[in-house]
C-alpha cells in the first residue's frame, strides 16, 4: 500500500479526497495495521470486553488439541533437537499457553522447541508476555520473514482472515478492481475502479454474472511462497484454522465486527475489526506452486473430534464442579456445533514436500461447499 500521510490517516474522507480511491486491500491494511491508527496496533480487541472471541478463548481444549497436533508433527519431522514453534497473530497468548500445557507430557519436545511469535501490536505483545511468562520465554517478530532459519512448526489461528484482500467486480463483460471512493455527497462508498485482470487460477469454472465479486489475497500467497522457500532448506509445517471456504466461487465476504456485532465495513480507520473469509482453495494452489504439500481441508468439528476433543472434555469434567462442567461443555459445543464454529471454521495443513500428511488430514484435498 502506498504510504499515507501522517496528518491524514485518521480521516478517511481526507485520504480519499487526496488519493481519489483506494483498493479494498489497501483499505483493510490502513484500518488494521497502519502505524498510529491500525486496529491491531491499538488496544486489546480480543475477549468478552473486546470486539470478538477466538477459539482459544472459547475453550482451553482447542489449544490443548493443537498441542497434541504439533507434537505429532514434530515426531513426523524426525524429532529435531532444535526447532521453531511459531504462532502468527497470537492474540493474547492463550493458544500458545494451552499448547505448552498439553506438551508437558513430552519434556524432550519442550526442550527442543523455541517459541516465536509474529505480532505487530505492542499492547498485545505485553498481554502475550504476561500470559506466557510462566511457561516459556518467546521471541517476538514484526513479520514472518524475520524468523530465524530452522525446522519450523507454524500455527495460524484466525490470522489469514485479517490479511488484506483484493476484490474484483464484474461489470458489463469485464472485471474491475473494487475500490473505496467518495460519492457525489462526499460519502465513502465501494464501487468499480479501473479495469483489472484477476489471477486466472482463482476463477471459478462457471461464468460470472453482473455484479459478481471475486476475492484474491496476495498477502496470503506471498506468505505461503515464503514458507515454501524455507521448506526447501529445512522441514516446515503450517496449520491454518480459520473461517472460510474451499470451493472457488464468487462472493463478497468482507465483514466488520465491533463489540461482538456485525457493523458496516466503512468506518473510521482503526475503529472496527475487518476480515474476509479465507479461500482455502487459493491457499492450496499457492502451496503447490511453492513446492509444498497441502492436505485435505476439514471442518473444525471433524478436525477437533479426530484429535480427541470428546475424550479430553470427559477428562476435564471428571474433577470439575457443576459450574465448571457446564462451562466446559458449552465451550466445547461451541467449537464443534455446525451452527456455531464447527462448520464455518476449517483446518488445513501445509507441509514440506517430503513430510507425510499429519493426522487427521489426508493427502487428497476435497471441496467443502
Properties at a glance:
Rossmann fold; alpha/beta; five-stranded antiparallel β-sheet; 33% helix; single chain; disordered N terminus; eight-stranded mixed β-sheet; 369 residues
Describe this structure in words.
33% of the residues lie in helices and 24% in strands. The protein has a domain at 41-164 and 221-352: Rossmann fold, CATH 3.40.50. The protein is built from 12 helices and 16 strands. The chain has helices spanning 12-19, 24-33, 55-58, 60-76, 94-102, 107-112, 122-132, 218-231, 280-289, 300-307, 309-318, 322-336; strands at residues 21-23, 83-88, 113-118, 139-141, 152-157, 166-171, 174-182, 188-195, 213-216, 236-245, 255-258, 261-263, 273-275, 278-279, 292-299, 345-352. The model is unreliable at 1-10 and 365-369 (pLDDT under 50). Helix 4 (60-76) packs across helix 5. The radius of gyration is 21 Å and the shape is globular. With 369 residues, the chain is of the alpha/beta class. Strands 2, 3, 4, 5, 10, 14, 15 and 16 form an 8-stranded mixed beta sheet that branches. Strands 1, 6, 7, 8 and 9 form a 5-stranded antiparallel beta sheet that branches. A 3-stranded antiparallel beta sheet has the order 12-11-13. The protein starts with 11 loop residues before the first helix and ends in a 17-residue tail after the last strand.
Amino acid at each position: 500500500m502506498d504510504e499515507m500521510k501522517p496528518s491524514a490517516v485518521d480521516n478517511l474522507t481526507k485520504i480519499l479526497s487526496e488519493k481519489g480511491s483506494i483498493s479494498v486491500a489497501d483499505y483493510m491494511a490502513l484500518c488494521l495495521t497502519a502505524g498510529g491508527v491500525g486496529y491491531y496496533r491499538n488496544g486489546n480487541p480480543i475477549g468478552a470486553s473486546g470486539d470478538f472471541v477466538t477459539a482459544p478463548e472459547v475453550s482451553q481444549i482447542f489449544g490443548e488439541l493443537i498441542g497434541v497436533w504439533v507434537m505429532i508433527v514434530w515426531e513426523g519431522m524426525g524429532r529435531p533437537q532444535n526447532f521453531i514453534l511459531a504462532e502468527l497473530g497470537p492474540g493474547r497468548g492463550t493458544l500458545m499457553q494451552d499448547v505448552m500445557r498439553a506438551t508437558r507430557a513430552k519434556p524432550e519436545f519442550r526442550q527442543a522447541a523455541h517459541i516465536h511469535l509474529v505480532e505487530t501490536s505492542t499492547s498485545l505483545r505485553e498481554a502475550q508476555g504476561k500470559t506466557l511468562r510462566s511457561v516459556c520465554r518467546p521471541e517476538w517478530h514484526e513479520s514472518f520473514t524475520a524468523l530465524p532459519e530452522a525446522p519450523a512448526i507454524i500455527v495460524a489461528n484466525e490470522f489469514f482472515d485479517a490479511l488484506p484482500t483484493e476484490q474484483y467486480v464484474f461489470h458489463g463483460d469485464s472485471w474491475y478492481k473494487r475500490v473505496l471512493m467518495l460519492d457525489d455527497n462526499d460519502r465513502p462508498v465501494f464501487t468499480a475502479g479501473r479495469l483489472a485482470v484477476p489471477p486466472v487460477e482463482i476463477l471459478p469454472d462457471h461464468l460470472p454474472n453482473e455484479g459478481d465479486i471475486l476475492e484474491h489475497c496476495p498477502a496470503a500467497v506471498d506468505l505461503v511462497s515464503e514458507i515454501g522457500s524455507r521448506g526447501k532448506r529445512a522441514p516446515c509445517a503450517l496449520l491454518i484454522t480459520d473461517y472460510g471456504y474451499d470451493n472457488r466461487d464468487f462472493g463478497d465476504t468482507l465483514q466488520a465486527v465491533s463489540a461482538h456485532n456485525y457493523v458496516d465495513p466503512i468506518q473510521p480507520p482503526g475503529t472496527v475489526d475487518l476480515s474476509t473469509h479465507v479461500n482455502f482453495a487459493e491457499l492450496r494452489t499457492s502451496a503447490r506452486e511453492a513446492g509444498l504439500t497441502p492436505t485435505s481441508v476439514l471442518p473444525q468439528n471433524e478436525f477437533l473430534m479426530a484429535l480427541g476433543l470428546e475424550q479430553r472434555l470427559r477428562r476435564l469434567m471428571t474433577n470439575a464442579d457443576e459450574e465448571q462442567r457446564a462451562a466446559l461443555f458449552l465451550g466445547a459445543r461451541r467449537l464443534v456445533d455446525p451452527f456455531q464454529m464447527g462448520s464455518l471454521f476449517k483446518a488445513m495443513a501445509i507441509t514440506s514436500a517430503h513430510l507425510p500428511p499429519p493426522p487427521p488430514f489426508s493427502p487428497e484435498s476435497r471441496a467443502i461447499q
